[in-house]
Design goal:
9-stranded mixed beta sheet
Amino acid sequence: MSKSSSSRETHQLDAYTHLYKSLPQHQETSKTTPKLIILCTWMLAEPRHIAKYIEGYQVLYPSVSILIIQSSPLDFLYRGRKALEKCLQPAVVAVRSACSQTSKSEILLHVFSNGGSLRTAALFRSYLETTGHPVPLHCTVLDSCPGHAQFHLAAQVLFLPWQSQPFYIRLPIAALLYMAFGLWWIVMLALRLESPFGTLWQGLSNPGEVKETKRVYIYSEADDMVPWYHIEDHAVEAKEKGFDVEMERFEGTGHVGHIRSGNGERYWGIVDRLWRQNLE
């Protein structure tokens, strides 16, 4: 355990889960502040990028505790549904400890990309199976997600860690990656196995598992990883299922990059407005 600031302690719950916990003497009593922020980050997100969102929330809600749930390519390629739900047990314990089953929203859930979406869907199921109740009442930010299964887009995401490498390194890695991923894709289709993309798509808007006040989709037509029309399709489906939906479409911003290029004020304004509206 290490100190992240004078008002927080950092607890590593497992390799993919960290809790930035507010110390008792710094906790606010305001009824307008979330008890817990949950950040379900995109696949292979770097700590320096995650830190920008932690810092943003520390400005909005200085004493809030923040639960970081990171995602991995293994979630899509190797871990089955039950195995992934088991991986979320440390997060389930953290949420149960921080929040209660009340009629008041206490959690702000912030989900990034398909990697964060898959972990979020697993968190919903794991919490329900462990406690017999859905994750406590919350509002949700969906940043650059979710997307349908498309081979070239999924493979492109898995290749991201090597894109900055020299050409002579990128080429053989790309060839091996696409062959391995292609074989996995064929096996999934041939055996009619449950697709992780289908799991995350349904899991984010399953009325039996999601106890939510309001949600906002943040997306862009310039996103080359998750097309804007995938996100709008999901928003329409969620609204038809009874979810309270808002859409915030950015211009010219890339995948999980809407906070950049001078858009920070708009981005955090959307987040804070969502939280305040969900208390009404």
